[in-house]
Design a protein that fits this description.
Blueprint (H helix, E strand, L loop, with lengths): L1 H28 L23 H4 L5 E2 L9 E6 L21 E9 H4 L11 E7 L4 E8 L3 H6 L2 H9 L9 E4 L8 E4 L6 H21 L22 H7 L2 E6 L14 E7 L3 H8 L1 H10 L4 E9 L14 E9 L2 E6 L3 E2 L14 E8 L9 E10 L6 E10 L19 H8 L1 H19 L1 H7 L6 H21 L6 H12 L4 H5 L2 H17 L2 H6 L2 H18 L9 H24 L1 H7 L5 H6 L7 H16 L3 H5 L2 H10 L12 H4 L1 H5 L21 H7 L5 H13 L32 H13 L11 H22 L5 H22 L2 E3 L8 E3 L2 H26 L16
Parallel strand pairs: 6-7
Antiparallel strand pairs: 1-2, 2-3, 3-4, 4-5, 8-9, 9-10, 10-14, 11-12, 11-15, 13-14, 15-16, 17-18
Helix pairs in contact: 1-22, 8-9, 11-13, 11-16, 12-27, 13-18, 18-22, 19-20, 19-24, 30-31, 31-32
Bound molecules: iron/sulfur cluster (SF4) (2 copies).
Length: 884
C-alpha cells in the first residue's frame, strides 16, 4: 500500500511540476501568440510608428503616413548618397525633392482582408512589397492559433511565410506541390497546420494584389460590360428584394463586439441602378433618366439605404475625402467612393419600400467594373474583442449579382472562388475517404460485438482482440501519426463556447478529420458510451494500451500492477473530472490560458509535434506517462485525461449498455478482470469508467469461465442433459420450453402530449411535491432563486454580462439542483432517452445528468432566442447589477 501511495504522490507531483514548467516555456516560445498590439495600430495614420516596417522592406529608411483605400504606406530610401541607395529588382524610381526614392510599400493584412485562420481569428501580418510587386518581407505580428503555441513551433510559421519573399504578388501560388506546366508555384505546407497556412496564403496574396492594383503595379481586370434588357414595368419593393435586384446586409451590434441591442448596428439595402428594370422601379422614370444622362460610359450607379445605430457614410467623413465605411468589391478589385462619387437619393419610388434613416447613390467610375458579374457591397467596421477590448478591422459584405432577367443573354458563366474549407476537403479527398471507411469499420465491428464475444472464450479472446488490435494500430499509425487527427479537450472547449456564444460551421469544417471524428464520437457516446472511442479508437489510449501489453510480453509482467487498489482508484478517478472542470472554468476567463493548460494531454507531444521537437518539461511529462503505462493499465486515461472526463459525462446516458446477470453482483469474476475497475461490488458497470474492452461480455457467454454458467454446465453434464446454446440473457436455453406464461398485460401506452408533459416536468422541475409542504419562506426563497438564475442567464445570452458571471451562477444553480434532486427525485434514466427506464442515481450520476441537461437547455434556448430574434429585444431588461 505504501508503495502505491508513494508512487501516486510522486507521479502527481511530477505532473504538476511539469505542467508549471511547461506553461512557462510555452509562454516564452509563443512570442506572437495573442501578442498584445497597440490599440492605435488599426487607426493611427503613422503605421510604422507601431510596427517594424523596416523589417519587411530592406533598405527603407522612411515611410509615409497611411494612404489609400485599403491602406498602405510608401517606403522610401534616402538617395542623397545615390551610390548607397538600394535598388529594388532594378526598379529605378525617381527621387523626390528631398532626395527620397520610393522603393516599395508596406501594409497590414488586417487593414485589407478579414480572413480568419483556424482559431477563427485573423493572423495579423505585416507585408512589404517593392515597386514591381515582388514581396520583400512578411512578418506575423499576432496570431491566435493554438497549434502554433504548443503544438508546432512558431518558427515553422516564420519558415512558411519566408517562402513568399522574392515572389511576384500576382503569381498563382498554392500550398502544396507546384504545377509549373500551369504556372502555379507551390509552397511547403506546415504539417498539422493546413488550415492556418491555406488561410495565410490567401491573406498574403489577396492583400498584396489589392495594394498592387491600387498603386498600379497590376493592371485592373477588364470585364465585358453588361447589356441590359428594357424594363417590363416597374416592380414593388418586396418583389425587388425577393428576386435579388435589391440585396440586404445586416450587421448586429453583437457582430462588432458590442452588447446586443434591439436596433441593428447597421441594416442596409442596396442595388444596381443602371439596369432599367431596377433603376426605374427604385427611382421612378424621370429621376432614372436624369441619372443615366449624367453618367459617362463605364460609370455605374449603386443605391444604398440604411437604418441602424451606425452610419454608412461615417461621422468623420470630410469633404474631398473618401467614404471609409463602404466600398464595392469585384473579385480582387475594390472601388471606393469620394465625395464627387456621391449623389443624394431623396426617395425610393418602389411601392412598399420602408423608410430609411440614410440614403445615397454612389457612382463607380471604372470601366473595369461590370454589372454582368457578381460583386459585393462591403461595410468596413471595427470589431472589439469583448475579452481584451482590442479593436480589429472587420468587414461585412453581401454578394450582389444582377438577376438574369435584367441581362441580355442572361448571366455569364463564372467560376467562383471556393471557401478555404472546401479547398482543404478537396485537397485531402483520398484521406477523407479512407478515414470515413476506418470510422465505418470501427462502428461495424463494435455493432457486431455480440457475435464476436460469443465466438471468443475467456482463454482465447482473439475474435474480439484481433479486430481491436487492428483498430489500435491503424489509430496510432494512420489517424494519429499520419492524419494528425487527434481529438483533444481544446476542441471540446471550442465547441462549448461555440454552442453558447457563436456557432460558425466554417471553423469546424476547416479540419475534415477532426470534424468527422467528432460527429462519430458524439453519436457513439450516446449509443454506447465513451468506451467506443476511448477503448478502441483514441490514438493515445491505443498507444498506452499497446505499451502496457508489449511491456508484459517483454518480461515486465511480474512487475505490472494491472489494477490499483480499489480504494485508491475510487479516489484518483475523480482527478480527471477536476482537470476538466478547471479547464472549462479557465476557458471562460481566457481561452488562450485554457489551451496552454490543456497541455496536460500528451497528444501533441506524441503525435502533432513529436517528442523530439519538444522542450524538456514536455519530454519529462511524456516519459513519466509512458513509464507509468508500462506498469499500470492506462493510468492517464483512468486518472488524468480531461477529454475522457468530458466524454464520460454524457456516457451516463448511453442508450445501450452491457449485459449483466443477476448473479454478477455476488460473483465478481468480471470485476476482477476489468482493467478499467468499472464494476462495483453489486456487479453494476459504471459507464463513465468502462472502456468497453468487452472482457466481461466474453465471460458472460463463456460456460467454462462464468461461474453460474460453469455450474449449470457441470450439472447438466453430470445429469446427462444436453448443453443447449446460451441465450441472449446469458443462460443456457432451457431444455424443456418454459411453460407458456400468461402474457403480461400490455403496457399502458402514454399519449404523446402526456409523454412530453412528463418529460418537461421531470427535467425542468427538480423538486417533488414535498417542496409544497415546506415552510412558506423556504418555498419563496427557492422560487426567487430560480427566477434570479433564469434572469442572469437571459442577461448573459443578451451579452449584457460576461460569461464568467453566467458560469458562476450556472454552477451555483447546478449544485443546488443536484442537492434538491438527490432529495426529491433521486433517479436518472437508464437506456434510451425516449424510454422511461429509471434507475437509482449515485451522486456522480446525478451530477452528470444535471450538468449536461442544464448545458443542453441553455444552448437550445439560446439558439431559439437567437434564431427568432428575441435576443435583440433584451437590451432594455433590468441589468440587476447588484447581483454581481
Ligand atoms: S481517456 Fe483520454 S487518452 Fe484515454 S482513451 Fe480516452 S481520450 Fe484517449
Ligand atoms: S470488463 Fe466490462 S466493465 Fe470492465 S471495461 Fe471491460 S467491458 Fe467495461
Amino acid at each position: 500500500m505504501k508503495y502505491f501511495s508513494a508512487f501516486a504522490s510522486r507521479l502527481f507531483a511530477s505532473v504538476l511540476l511539469c505542467c508549471a514548467s511547461g506553461l512557462a516555456t510555452a509562454a516564452e516560445s509563443g512570442a506572437t501568440y495573442e501578442a498584445p498590439l497597440p490599440v492605435q495600430l488599426s487607426t493611427d495614420p503613422d503605421l510604422c510608428a507601431y510596427v517594424p516596417c523596416k523589417d519587411v522592406i530592406p533598405g527603407a529608411d522612411s515611410f509615409s503616413k497611411r494612404m489609400g483605400k485599403p491602406a498602405y504606406v510608401e517606403a522610401y530610401a534616402n538617395t542623397s548618397d545615390s551610390d548607397d541607395a538600394p535598388e529594388t529588382d532594378g526598379a529605378k524610381a525617381s527621387a523626390d525633392e528631398n532626395g527620397r526614392k520610393l522603393i516599395g510599400y508596406v501594409f497590414l493584412s488586417t487593414d485589407i482582408v478579414d480572413i480568419p485562420a483556424y482559431s477563427g481569428k485573423p493572423v495579423v501580418t505585416l507585408i512589404g512589397m517593392d515597386t514591381k510587386g515582388t514581396i520583400t518581407g512578411v512578418r506575423v505580428l499576432r496570431h491566435s492559433e493554438p497549434i502554433l503555441l504548443l503544438g508546432i513551433p512558431e518558427s515553422e510559421l516564420t519558415k512558411f511565410i519566408k517562402q513568399y519573399v522574392g515572389k511576384f504578388v500576382g503569381s498563382k501560388i498554392e500550398v502544396g506541390a507546384g504545377r509549373p506546366d500551369q504556372g502555379v508555384l507551390g509552397l511547403d505546407a506546415i504539417t498539422g497546420a493546413t488550415v492556418t497556412v491555406i488561410a495565410q496564403n490567401q491573406v498574403v496574396l489577396r492583400s498584396g494584389v489589392q495594394i498592387a492594383k491600387q498603386v498600379g503595379i497590376i493592371k485592373p481586370t477588364i470585364r465585358p460590360q453588361a447589356k441590359f434588357k428594357q424594363a417590363e414595368g416597374n416592380r414593388d419593393w418586396n418583389t425587388l428584394v425577393d428576386e435579388g435586384s435589391v440585396e440586404h446586409l445586416r450587421v448586429e451590434t453583437a457582430d462588432v463586439g458590442m452588447p446586443r441591442s434591439r436596433e441593428p448596428y447597421i441594416d442596409m439595402y442596396f442595388g444596381y441602378l443602371n439596369a432599367p428594370g431596377v433603376g426605374r422601379s427604385i427611382l421612378g422614370d424621370a429621376v432614372y433618366e436624369g441619372l443615366m444622362s449624367r453618367l459617362k460610359p463605364g460609370e455605374h450607379a449603386i443605391f444604398v439605404v440604411a437604418n441602424g445605430i451606425e452610419s454608412f457614410k461615417g461621422s468623420g467623413f470630410v469633404r474631398g475625402g473618401i467614404y471609409d465605411r463602404v466600398q464595392v468589391a469585384q473579385d480582387m478589385d475594390t472601388f471606393t467612393f469620394r465625395d464627387l462619387d456621391y449623389l443624394n437619393l431623396y426617395a425610393i419610388r418602389a411601392d412598399g419600400a420602408p423608410s430609411f434613416r440614410e440614403s445615397a447613390i454612389f457612382i463607380v467610375r471604372s470601366p473595369t467594373f461590370s454589372a454582368a458579374y457578381p460583386w459585393h457591397l462591403v461595410f468596413l467596421g471595427n470589431k472589439m474583442d469583448p475579452q481584451t477590448g482590442v479593436r480589429t478591422f472587420a468587414n461585412f459584405n453581401q454578394k450582389y449579382w444582377l438577376p438574369a432577367r435584367h441581362l441580355e443573354g442572361g448571366r455569364p458563366e463564372i467560376v467562383e472562388p471556393e471557401a478555404t474549407w472546401v479547398t482543404v476537403w478537396k485537397t485531402r479527398k483520398t484521406e477523407v475517404i479512407l478515414f470515413v471507411l476506418w470510422l465505418a469499420a470501427a462502428g461495424t465491428v463494435y455493432a457486431l460485438r455480440d457475435k464476436l464475444v460469443r465466438r471468443a472464450t475467456y482463454k482465447d479472446r482473439r475474435w474480439k482482440d484481433v479486430p481491436k488490435l487492428l483498430l489500435w494500430l491503424t489509430s496510432i499509425g494512420f489517424v494519429g501519426f499520419y492524419l494528425l487527427a487527434v481529438p483533444s479537450i481544446t476542441q471540446v472547449l471550442t465547441w462549448f463556447h461555440a454552442i453558447l456564444f457563436e456557432w460558425r460551421w466554417e471553423l469546424f469544417l476547416s479540419d475534415p478529420f477532426i470534424f468527422l471524428f467528432w460527429i462519430f464520437i458524439i453519436v457513439t457516446v450516446f449509443f454506447w458510451g465513451r468506451g467506443m472511442f476511448c477503448g478502441w479508437m483514441c490514438p493515445y489510449g491505443s498507444l498506452s494500451e499497446i505499451v502496457y501489453k508489449l511491456s508484459g510480453k517483454l518480461g515486465l509482467k511480474r512487475f505490472q500492477r494491472h489494477l490499483l487498489p480499489q480504494r485508491w482508484h475510487d479516489r484518483l478517478k475523480w482527478v480527471k473530472y477536476g482537470v476538466f472542470a478547471v479547464l472549462l472554468a479557465v476557458s471562460f476567463y481566457s481561452m488562450g490560458m485554457a489551451e496552454k493548460m490543456a497541455e496536460v494531454e500528451p497528444f501533441k507531444t506524441t503525435f502533432l509535434v513529436g517528442v523530439w521537437n519538444r522542450t524538456w518539461p514536455f519530454v519529462t511529462f511524456w516519459l513519466l506517462l509512458l513509464l507509468a503505462s508500462m506498469f499500470f493499465e492506462r493510468p492517464f486515461c483512468k486518472y488524468l485525461c480531461p477529454l475522457g472526463a468530458a466524454l464520460a459525462v454524457p456516457s451516463t446516458f448511453r442508450w445501450w449498455g452491457l449485459k449483466r446477470k443477476k448473479e454478477c453482483g455476488p460473483c465478481a469474476a468480471c470485476a476482477v478482470g476489468c482493467g478499467s475497475q468499472a464494476i462495483d461490488p453489486s456487479g453494476r458497470i459504471d459507464q463513465r469508467e468502462c472502456l468497453l474492452c468487452l472482457d466481461c461480455q466474453v465471460l458472460y457467454y463463456d460456460d467454462h469461465a462464468c461461474p453460474p454458467l460453469a455450474q449449470e454446465r457441470k450439472r447438466r453434464t453430470k445429469a446427462g442433459e444436453p448443453l443447449t446454446p446460451i441465450g441472449a440473457n446469458g443462460y443456457f436455453i432451457p431444455i424443456t420450453p418454459a411453460a407458456a406464461t400468461v402474457a403480461p398485460a400490455a403496457a399502458v401506452r402514454q399519449s404523446a402530449p402526456a409523454w412530453i408533459g412528463q418529460e418537461v416536468f421531470d427535467h425542468l422541475f427538480p423538486w417533488s411535491r414535498k417542496v409544497f409542504q415546506q415552510p412558506i419562506l423556504l418555498q419563496a426563497t427557492t422560487f426567487a432563486l430560480t427566477i434570479l438564475v433564469t434572469w442572469v442567464w437571459v442577461l448573459g445570452a443578451a451579452g449584457r454580462i460576461g460569461p464568467g458571471i453566467v458560469l458562476g451562477w450556472w454552477s451555483a444553480w447546478s449544485v443546488y439542483e443536484l442537492v434538491v434532486r438527490m432529495r426529491c427525485k433521486p433517479y436518472v434514466k437508464d437506456g434510451p432517452w425516449w424510454g422511461r427506464n429509471l434507475r437509482p442515481a449515485s451522486w456522480a450520476d446525478m451530477a452528470a445528468y444535471v450538468t449536461f441537461k442544464n448545458l443542453l437547455i441553455a444552448a437550445t434556448l439560446f439558439l431559439i432566442m437567437k434564431g427568432t430574434g428575441v435576443l435583440d429585444y433584451l437590451s432594455d431588461v433590468p441589468g440587476l447589477e447588484w447581483l454581481y
